[in-house]
Amino acid sequence: MLGSLLALALAAAPSTRQIAIYPLRHPAGREAQAVALGELLATTLRARGLEPSVQSAPDAYSGCETEPCLAPRSGASPGGAIVATWTAFGQGAVLSSVVLDGRAGQGTFELAVPATSEAELPAATAALGNAIADQLEAAPRVSEKEERPTFGLALKVGNTFGSVAENAPQLSGLSLRFDVEIDYLAAPQFWPFLDLSLVLAKDASGQRVQLVPVLVGAKYVFRHDRTLRPFTGMALGLDFLSEPLEPDTGGSSSFAVYGVGGLDWMVLPNLAVVAEASLDLNGLEASGGSGVLFAIGLNLGARVLF
Predict the structure, then answer these.
(1) Tens of pLDDT along the chain (306 residues)?
(2) What one-character-per-residue DSSP string does the chain give?
(3) Which residue, among 211, 199, 281, 214, has the nearest Cα to 241 in the 3D structure?
(4) Cα separation values, 35 from 84, 273, 280, Å
(5) Which domains, from first to last, does the chain contain?
(6) 70 vs 22, 39, 41, 238, 293, CA distance in Å?
(7) How many alpha carbons fall within 13 Å on the CB side of residue 138?
């Protein structure tokens, strides 16, 4: 179970090192030099740990100088896009770039490096590449809005301690509980969820008791940006008793109100170890009117965010 959730967590982590490089804008008749300088720029960025993706459409960004123009065209690369220009004047030149910083979520920035002659253009190109890498590394890799996952999937196993009212059959002190929980991260602190559980227990005579709670609720997560994240919440739903405590009574169901609380320990950015306790706030009416309260549930499991 943990191995599958770990694989999901690693797959859910976005790659933000990729950045698109569009063909260098250049003076007329200098296409061959421009291609070589573009390749040098990509090599410089690659040496700095980025993943440049050289594009082939020379006019894709024609006229683009601002984020509203650049952003819709950079979807193929989560890191953003680079449009560089070689401007010649006399014996000198200037290499400039407009960069959409998709990882930082901070729009565009511009950089320029002068060259006093064409012989200095390779050195100026390398300097421009390093300046772009410095600027990208100085800003946060991914904005909070981009980084925050949308859904969570938790698999848990544990024990439910059952207690019963007077004159009702006594349940075994130990049981086995399986939980599958789907969370929707509506906000960093507010998580609506759907929970499906199966509780396997026995009464004092050894007769099986199967309880199936189906719940919809919401949790409030404290310290949502920390490694240890306590949470608390409530859930409403139905408890289905599929195996009755008395042979002559059918399966039973009742409205259920649960309180939940626990702790998520984030061992990876997208993977948490979960310790959770739940309390059934009302009794399950079954077995000829006997009040059965599955009082306290203790679970341990894992949650992957994606």
Answers:
(1) 545 544 544 444 444 467 878 788 888 888 888 888 889 998 998 888 888 888 776 545 555 555 455 554 444 455 577 878 888 877 788 888 877 765 544 556 788 889 888 889 899 899 998 988 888 776 554 444 456 789 999 999 988 766 544 444 455 556 788 999 999 999 989 999 999 988 887 766 677 777 788 999 999 999 888 899 999 999 998 877 765 545 554 456 778 888 999 999 999 989 999 999 988 776 544 444 444 455 678 899 999 998
(2) -HHHHHHHHHHHSPP--EEEEEEEE--TT-HHHHHHHHHHHHHHHHHTT-EEEE---TTTTTT--SHHHHGGG-TT-TTEEEEEEEEEETTEEEEEEEEEETTTTS-EEEEEEEESSGGGHHHHHHHHHHHHHHHHHHS-SS-HHHHS-SEEEEEEEEEEEEEE-TTSPPBPS--EEEEEEEEE-SSSSEEEEEEEEEEEEEBTT--EEEEEEEEEEEEEESSTTSSEEEEEEEEEEEEEE-S-SSTTS--EEEEEEEEEEEEEEEEETTEEEEEEEEEE-S-EEETTTEEEEEEEEEEEEEEEE-
(3) 211
(4) 12, 50, 69
(5) 17-141 (3.40.50.10070), 146-305 (2.40.160.20)
(6) 11, 21, 19, 51, 60
(7) 8
Which pair of tokens denotes residue 95? 């290499």
